[in-house]
Structures are given as C-alpha cells and as structure tokens.
## 1
Amino acid sequence: MDGSREWKGEARMVRVPAGAVTLDGDLSVPERARGIVLFAHGRGSSRLSPRHRYVARLLNEAKLATVLLDLLTPAEEAVDLRTAHLRFDVGLLSERLVAATDWLMQRSKTRHLPLGYFGASTGAAAALIAAAERPDAVRAVVSRGGRPDMAGPALARVQAPTLLIVGEADFLVVRLNQEAFAKLTCEKRLVIVPGATHLFEEPGALDEVAHLAREWLERYLALAEARVSGPGAP
C-alpha cells in the first residue's frame, strides 16, 4: 500500500521507500487529523513495541495521526541481533527517517498535516538529526529515554521545539540528556520523571510520558496547523 486510499482511522501497514531498502510501518490516520507523528524506535525495539503503541493510541485519540516505522529491515534486524551495531548507527537511522519524512510529505493524505517526531533511545538521536535536516517539515520533537547526545553537532541546528523525557533512576541517561539539553538552541524542555527507570515500567510512569508527549505535540502541531490554515491561507 502506498497510502493513497481513504482511511477511516484504523491502522494500516505501509511500505516506505528509503534508498535501497523498503521499510515496514503502521499508519493510523484518525478522522479530522490535526497532525502526524513519526515514531523513531531505538535499540532492540520495533514498531510492535507495546510502549510505543500505547503512546500512539493516546495520540490517535487526540486526533494526531501516527506512523510506527521500523528503521531497519527484517534482514538487518537479524544481523543486529547478533552484532548490535546497526541500532547505534544514528547516521543510517536518521537518513531513513528523512526518507520517511519526505515520503509523508509527498502523500496526498498526509502532506498537509504538520509533522512531529517521537524518538526513543538511539531513535531520539536520529529524530533530532532528521529534524535538523528538515527544519521546514518537522514542527516538534519528543524524546523518551533517548540518547540525544548522539545527535552531536546537529543539536545546535534543531529548530523544532524539543521535549526530552527521562527517568530519574536512569542515572547515566539523565546526565547525557542534561548535556544535550544545554546544546539545544530551540524552544526546549527537559522533564525528569520521578522514580522512573529507562523503560518507564513503574506504575504510572508511562502514563506520564504519554500525556507529556501528547501535550507537547498537540501544542506545537496545532500552532503549525493554525499558521497554515489561518487568515489569508489559500
């Protein structure tokens, strides 16, 4: 499927071209969608992650479309299970995220929707690099337990409002997020969730992540939508 058929809000599998490979994704577009959020999974995760699917459902309820995308092919995932090196190749992951962004911007049913990213672990670094590469397309970024530090020099070029969420008990990642936060020059916020570990498995922790993400994405994607559809817009 190329995403050209009518949707009625249910999730549909899509195939996204990204250079020499084709990536699998699940696209959900609720009726009267006000924006779209592209998920960038991190190490050892996939579009089937229950944590990502939980957040995606909450975003769908808020009239935000979602794309849960595998940034590695099944063959690459099999290799990565043995070597664990592709999940840390944020250059490769960000290139594929840019390709997926361009694909969404070319589809008739999604190109009008303001775009945000939701990244986790190394996927957060890929999201920030991709946001720096596509500043006119990406309107907001959320990182959950991410490694924004791995975005390196791209951090200073990110223009999209960026929310970093990290668990209080994820000690090393807290420090790395604080260092990356200092390098961001865009509108930004760092939230440390009390008592939470890396996967936010504690009671209520993932709920807090999901609500923080929804609030941030609703705010900035709605602002982008208002600028497009406001007075004088075609």
Note: Confidence is low (pLDDT under 50) at residues 1-8.
## 2
Amino acid sequence: MMVYRLSFFGATFVDGCMFIVLILMFNAIYSQVDSIGGWSRGQATIFLGTFSLLNAISMTFYFFGVVGIPGKIKSGELDHYLTKPINPLLRLTFENIDPGSAPLIPLSIGIIAYGVSLQNMTSSPGTFILYFVFIFLMAVLFYDMQVILRTIPFFVISATSIEKLEGTVIELCMRVPGVLFKGMFKVLFYFILPYGLMATIPVQIITNSASGIMIAVSAAVVVLFTALAQWFWRFGLKHYKSAGS
C-alpha cells in the first residue's frame, strides 16, 4: 500500500481537511453568537472532534471492508466468502483495514482536547472513561448502520440511492448537533436513523449534561441496532441469489 503513498494517506488528507473546514465554519458562527441550542463553542468543538473520531475509527477498521459488500453481492463474489470456514461478515468487515486512515484518530483526539480546553470544565476520570465507553458503543452503532444499509442490496438491483441517503444524513448530522433536533426529527435521527445520537451523547456525557435516562436509552439503541444488523444480515443471506444459482 505504501507504494502509492498519496493514495495511502488520501483518506486522512481528505477527511482531515473536511473537519478543519467544519471547525472554521463553527468558529465563524460562534463569532456572532454565544451558543447554539444551548451549546457553547467548546461543546461544538468537542462534537466535531467526536464525530471525526468515530469517522476515523470507521475508516481505519471496517469502512473499506463493509463498503464493498453491495458489489460482491451483485457480482456473485460473495460465494467465495460463504465457502470459507469463517464468518463471512467478520471477514468482509476486517479484510480491508486501512492504516492510512489511522492518523485521523490522534487528529480527532486533538480536536476533542482543544474543545475541552475551550469549555474550561472539570470532569472526573470516571466521566472520561464513560465518554470513551460510549465512543466504542457509537462506533459499533456506526458499523451496524453501515451493515444494515449494505445488506439491502440482497433485495434490490442497485444500492446507489441508499448510499446517497447515507451520505446525506451523515453530512447533516455532522453539522447539526442532535440537541437541535425536535419532534419527529429527533425521533428520526435518534431512533430510526440514529446518526444524531452518535456524537451528541458522548459530548453530553463529557460535559456532564446527559441525563441517566438518556444514557441508558442510547445504550439500548446500540444493543437493538446490533441485534437488528445481525438478524438482517442472516435474513439477507437466506435470500442471496449466488452466481451458481
């Protein structure tokens, strides 16, 4: 992979630039107002860093494996995975780990640390531990959503529209903290397409603004979607029309 170094570090460069632009955008907004939806500049910066960290974990460990699932379903290449003595989803998930995206992880932690310094808060070690526990849970939720959306191609001809929907929703929830969603939008982005939870809840935890009920509900959402992703994948396999059928 290091033969083409520019390609190797491409994801880090592109995503790093994207989050830097978002930081500049939020700084421009906060130069005119003191808070957005009750969130300060520090909370918004932690939010961006948290979403960047989740994105970095995804890009490094499982995104480039999961993203190829629709193509393998369409071409029949999935047959090859089903004949091997290993869980096919496990192999698909981790067969394309991308170390070129790993530098995004310390970059994201740096953004989070900068937001914490802006917030000028005092949090206990237990709070930081709970924050990183929920980073792990939200990374699992992010993975669950990617698997669910890429299992739909078992039943349709093209997944292009599904991937466009995913990109649009992620882009929205990357720019709009979940605390700003109200009514049906909160239901949609917390419980149906739960991208609004992913960065918002960890930020509320680290800034001591999350209720115990919301923390428990968020954990329950992760468990529910993990079970749904596993069930939907097995259901899709039952309806897979292999290249030999």
Note: The chain has a mean pLDDT of 88.
## 3
Amino acid sequence: MGKDSQPFADPPRVETLRVRNYRVLRDVTMGRLTPLTVLLGPNGSGKSTIFDVFAFLSECFSEGLKKAWDRRGRFKELRSRDSKGPIVIELQYREQPRTPLITYHLEIDETSRGPIVKHEFLRWKRKHPGAPFYFLDYRLGKGKVITGEDPEAEDQRVGKPLSGPDVLAVNTLGQLAENPRVIALRNFITSWHLSYLSADAARGRPEAGAEERLSATGDNLPNVVQYLSEEHPERLEQIFQTLRRRIPRIEKVSSKPLDDGSLLLQIKDAPFSSPVLARFASDGTLKMLAYLTLLYDPEPPQLIGIEEPENYLHPRLLPELAEECDQASERTQLIVTTHSPFFIDVLKPEQVRVLYRTEDGYTRIKRVADMPGVRQFLDEGASLGDLWMEGHFDVGDPFEEETRE
C-alpha cells in the first residue's frame, strides 16, 4: 500500500459551538454540527462572524491572545453593541467517535492593560453514571489541572501558574507531556485552516520551493503543486482527475521553477499542445484547483473553513464543489459559509444552517432540518436552493430587507 493510500484516522469533531457577546453573535448556539456544516444567509447575516470565531480562536493559539485581540479592534469593536460582560466561546467536541464529550470554555475580558482570560476550563464526564468534572480550571492565569491520560474526578489537581492573565492555559499546558488531553485540544485548534482563497493570489510567482500546506489566500499554490508532484504524485493525479471531471477541458497542471528562483504555475487545456500561465487562466479554474488541493491534502487540517466559495466560481461548479466538500468531510471537519442556492442544492438539510438577523440587530441560527415542511418539499422533488430562494425556509425571503423575530 502506497503512502497516498494509507487509511485516515477519524478526526476530532466539534459538535456544539456557543458564542456570547462576539459582534452580532450576542448569544447563539449551534448544536448537532455535522462533519460538513454549511452556514447559509444573505450578506450581513453573521456568517463571516461565525467564521471569524474559529479564526480568532486559531490565532489565539498560534499568535497569542493579544495579537488576535488587537487585530480585531479590542472590546470596542469585538463586544456586541449594548452588551456587557466577557466574550464567551465554548466548544463541545470529541477526540474520536464514541469518546467522551469534552467542553472547552473560554471567557475573555479586558482591562486598561489589554485582554485577560477571565475563565478557561476543560470539562468531561468519564464514567456513566457520573457528573461532569473539570480537569483544567483557570482564572486570570491561576488554576489547576489534572495530569495523566484519562483524568478522573478524584485525581489530584496540580497548581501550575501561568506567566500572566492574558495567557491561555490550554496553549501553555498543552506543550507539557503530562497533559495528553490538553495536548490533543491544542493540536486540534492549531491545525485548523481558515481559507480566504483568492484567484488573484494564486496567479502570483512565489519563490521556488515545495510547501506542504496551502496558505489561507492560496498564494503558494505553485509550491504545493510542486510538493505534491515530488512527494505525493498519486494524490496530485487524483486532483487532476477530479479537476478534469469537474472542468472537462483541463488536462494538466504543473509548476515550473525559473532562473530567478520563482515558480510559475502552468495549466494545459486538452485541445492545445502547450500550457498557459496561471495568470491567464480563468478565475474559476484557479479557485477550483486551489480548493481541490486543500480538500485532497494528504494530511488534511483537522478543521477547514471555507468562506463564500461562490465568489468568482461559476454557479455550475458550486454543486460540484459541495460534493467534494462532502466527500472530504470523512477526513476532516468543514465549515463553509455561502449565500449561494447552488452550493446547497446537493446537501442534506441536516448539513445546512440559516443565519438571519432580527429587529434587535443580532444573529439567529436555524437548522434547515428543523424547519417545518422542508422534508415534504424535498420528497416531492424540490431542491434546498429553490426552497431558500422562494422563501420556504421559515426565516423568510433572503432578499427581504426587514428582519424577523
């Protein structure tokens, strides 16, 4: 068995996200998240804010709380208007199927010196019956953690002060071998990939050199193609086969090192003998290639976020991309934001959440599977996209200006 055909371990899965006081997300909860969860809604409904919650949490772990906080304008811009209290982000997740459900809770407040971690904890229930218990519990840089592979409620809690109140306990303690469960969460969050792919970025000429992971904007696409051609040719051929199936005229993609040390991405159409440079290829071709490169990553991120894939992508390709996302969700968890009815046409109602804002200005979220009448319409041959555009979802017409309670 080649290295491209190794079976993949089941990735961790976020099952519930709860957010309070984060911009238009004054108090929202998304439960029963599926491996592919699509956030649907018109512009301004809060989709990008949900996406940014994941990005913010990822940046807190990779760059530190203060940088992620300052980048977003601090409390002045982050906290929900007319709201008080800390920002709260809470995840419920499982490391593997049928393992205990773990809750990660993070409360962030602010002083004159900057952001502080008001409360951070990890909680799970190991035995049935039994009550959930905290195996990590910190406030303002001080707290305790239960070490070991399988923390139990009666185990000894060890005090390990952090370097300051603006430091995440999971980020610090997740680097110590005696905290396997904390390590697992830190590794999970630091592996997230939040994608803001741009066709213009993919047209560039980056410096030569293979790179394993596509960047957030896709500006290193030639480097990743080079890496796959050298280390995972079977996986690259899978990408090409899929690209040819989704865009039939495409025959081959390659990256060519130049004398100045840069890379050129070349795309060959089947009818012609020579390829064209990426900067002359269509936006849709480049974006589809970039998305497939991300989704077919030999070692994919454990969570992938894709924001509004419909931008510069032909509507005919959106159901194709949705199918690719659905297949990739066997190996990773995907969060996709969209306002396109074409993207959701091939999905199940359990996979789609509709976001809308009410008269108070804040976002509400409803799962399409919970909306009355939807399943009956689907049984009669309707598509999710048509139902949304025709106002059959019980959040109203997506193009109406007025909002609903």
Note: The first strand starts at residue 13 and ends at 22.
